[in-house]
Amino acid sequence: MSDLKLSTISLKDILRLAKERDPDQTEFHQAIHEVMESVVPFIKEHKNYQQAGLIERLIEPERVVMFRVPWEDDDGNYRVNRGFRVQFNSALGPYKGGLRFHPSVNLSIIKFLAFEQTFKNSLTGLPLGGGKGGSDFNPRGKSDGEIMRFCQSFMNELFRYIASDTDVPAGDIGVGEREVGYLFGQYKRLTAEFTGVLTGKGLAYGGSKVRLQATGFGLLYFVKEMLEQHDESIDGKKVIISGSGNVAQFAAQKAIDMGAKVISMSDSDGYILDKDGIDREKLDFIKTLKNEKRGRIKEYADEYSCEFSEGKPWNQPCDIALPCATQNEIEEEDAKKLAENGVICVAEGANMPCTDAAVKVFHEADVLYAPGKASNAGGVAVSGLEMSQNSKRLSWSFEDVDERLVDIMQTIHEKCAEHGEEKEGINYVKGANIAGFIKVADAMMAQGHV
Ligand code: NDP
């Protein structure tokens, strides 16, 4: 491994450096590629950003914590998982970003998410740095007691590194209100402090109204702006949403309320196709199925006599595609199929659900495409508002928080339009990356070589 020093500022050199350091971290390289592809041409024109090892510092996390999480299952067996917290960049504020519990979790995935989070948080305009964490623990099929014991053991280690002005985790895949509750309870017990150290908390103990809905709602507020900018609207559009978890559920709810017809949702087993559209009542069935019964999306097809297929939903015709499940779920072939079938807009609810090749297909086919760091920033934005309410010991109304969310999503859209303007229209990838970068870079330069 070499010293972290670039000979020239080029995308190739930045990627070479990242690959030399961590050859196996493919998701992290992919995220660096996605951001730096837009940022490198910009900094070639703004030479001040080529100084002080800025790029070298930007692609190296400030701190990585990895730890053992031992826990006992219901049969009395000892089990061991691995825990992570990557504190990527604190130029703009305390580290902020979710915790993911999923068997696929590894250091590469957490670093990619934390890196992305840094620029996303910058775009929200709130004083938040970037971080992310999680574990390769698989919550699927675990009892409530097992989930609680795991969360407590996870926090027994994590509590040393987080605090309300230092690092404030939230939920992500596999970490919802139940898990945040167990994590918060253990933090409180270990520190004897009741502070806003986690967001996504229950409303009874410091959670913010709209946090539960924020990522999905924010996604639709962003899509509305994109479509209006291009003389289109959501009303009457056919929408496919992947996933059926937190983001997918509230994206579906807002899409239905805005007059769209949601025809498909999914989980890791496959997708349902309901040609009549999922209405609010059917969506309530999905929410109960997933959140309370912890069931599978296939049961929707049994309940409403519609199709269920294994695999991904992207071969079905639609006007708007909202990937809300996981990274790299839309690959080049999926993107080609969507474009062939006439999709007009793809907006990411998940983090990096489209591969670089898929994004290229969308750009070439003139499909409006929004990267997650812009379109799914509503979740972390309301988490930022939850932190503000906690520190002031206040609780704002649903309407108040929702209004602020709309405002934040509109502002993010404006920033993308300002920095992503091209002859062919708005390039949202370029706009989001450059707008996110400028604020972080300026703060890093101002704070010296740290
Ligand atoms: P949930 O755990 O609530 O839901 C995840 C959904 O995606 C489930 O339906 C799950 O299916 C499905 N899924 C997970 N992994 C895979 C896979 N490998 N293949 C197919 N389907 C899969 O998570 P969230 O809704 O919170 O998060 C979804 C995405 O949104 C993630 O990328 C997350 O990083 C991103 N995000 C979340 C935010 C939030 O506020 N929660 C904020 C910003 C981004 P199954 O039940 O079968 O596992």
CATH class of the largest domain: Alpha Beta
Structural class: alpha/beta
Beta-strand content bin:
15-25%
Q: Sketch the topology as an H/E string, one letter per element.
A: HHHEEEHEHEHHEHEEHHEEHEHEHHHEEH
Number of beta-strand segments: 14
Strand order of the largest sheet: 9-8-7-6-10-11-12
Helix coverage percent of residues?
40-55%
Mean of the pLDDT scores? 97
Morphology call = globular
* Measured distance between first and last alpha carbons: 21 Å
Features:
450 residues; alpha/beta; Rossmann fold; seven-stranded mixed β-sheet; five-stranded mixed β-sheet; 16 helices; 47% helix; 16% strand; binds NADPH dihydro-nicotinamide-adenine-dinucleotide phosphate
Short description:
The chain is of the alpha/beta class and about 450 residues long. The chain is about 45% helix and about 15% strand.
Structural notes for this entry:
The mean pLDDT is 97. The protein folds into three domains: 11-58, no CATH class; 63-194, Leucine Dehydrogenase, chain A, domain 1 (Rossmann fold); 214-375, Rossmann fold, CATH 3.40.50. It starts with 10 loop residues before the first helix and ends with a helix. With 450 residues, the protein is an alpha/beta fold. The chain has helices at 11-21, 26-45, 54-58, 107-123, 144-158, 177-191, 211-229, 246-257, 280-292, 298-304, 332-340, 356-364, 372-375, 378-392, 398-419, 428-446, and strands at residues 63-72, 78-89, 95-101, 129-135, 167-170, 238-242, 261-267, 270-273, 307-310, 320-323, 345-347, 368-370, 421-422, 425-426. The chain is globular and about 60 Å long. The strands form three sheets. The protein has a seven-stranded mixed beta sheet, sandwiched between helices. The chain is built from 16 helices and 14 strands. Bound molecules: NADPH dihydro-nicotinamide-adenine-dinucleotide phosphate. The site of NADPH dihydro-nicotinamide-adenine-dinucleotide phosphate has 22 residues, from helix 8.
